[in-house]
Amino acid sequence: MKTTKLLALLFVIALMTSCNTQTVPPGAENSSQMTFTISEAPFDTSEPTQLGIEMGGGKLFLAGGTDKLVEGTVVVNHELQQPAAIRENNSLTLKQQRPDSTLSIPREKYINNWDLKVGTVPIDLSITAGAYEGVMELGGLALTNLTVADGASTSSIKFSHPNAAEMSLLSYKTGASTTKVEGLGNAHVETVDFTGGVGNFLFDFTGENLADMDVFIDSGMSSITIVIPANARSEITIAGDMNNVDISGTWTVDNNLYQSGSKGPLIKILLDVGFGDLKFVQK
User: Fold this and answer.
1) Which range (8-12, 113-117, 271-275) has the least confidence?
2) In which element (H, E) is residue 53 found?
3) What burial class does residue 1 get, using C-beta atoms within 10 Å of its C-beta: 0-12 exposed, 13-18 middle, 19+ buried?
4) Which of 31, 50, 192, 246 has the most CB atoms less than 10 A away?
5) What is the Cα–Cα distance from 129 to 277, expressed in whole angstroms?
6) Model confidence over 226-252: pLDDT tens digits?
7) Burial track 6-42 (b if 16+ CB lie within 10 A, e otherwise)
């Protein structure tokens, strides 16, 4: 088991060393910027809408604040990166073309900036991205599911306000990255499933915390911080044994089981880390 994790870590580290270039169409570094407008109306249904965002490397800013299903702009520096909106039944996918002939150029010369607002209808949201920078303020939306898959990235997801729907699953799969997920107590989510490679990861469970939550975190060589607020109880079980654990606040420790709190819903966390520095904060 440890050998398998070590091989996986070596593979992720190799990927990190190759993330200084971005594959883009020829001539993109010399092209003028182009801005494309996104404006998509909601579907005429009470069922949750399947909303997919598929982008390569670049920047993504996502928040609420529109009466449409989704609206905003995409700024690129090559015409083949023009986004397409594909509507089918109760599904909308925003995606970019992929050219047949590509070359690698420095990332700083590659422009692919998405600035989107999402409406308040019930949404099953899926985000697929490459090496990108993402800032997502999802508080106040009505998310029934959230799926994120990205490569080497720097991303932040916040639920500053309560989710207006009950979320079944928040699934996040990432490579070598720095990821912050804050306000999870406002997400109203039943299950959180996170898989990460090498990186720095923060999971902050502050918020309303109205119901129990199951959390599964599987990571390679990483630094992980978990924040538990006073209005929730927690049980954190560490499956691996090659970790340094730093605790802040009031905890009961029994071998690899860490417990905090005496009232409120239970946040039950299974933490499987190959090698890592772990920090548990009880406020």
Assistant:
1) 8-12
2) strand 49-54
3) exposed
4) 192
5) 27
6) 999 999 999 999 997 777 999 999 999
7) eeebeebeebbeebeebbbbeebbebeeeebebebeb
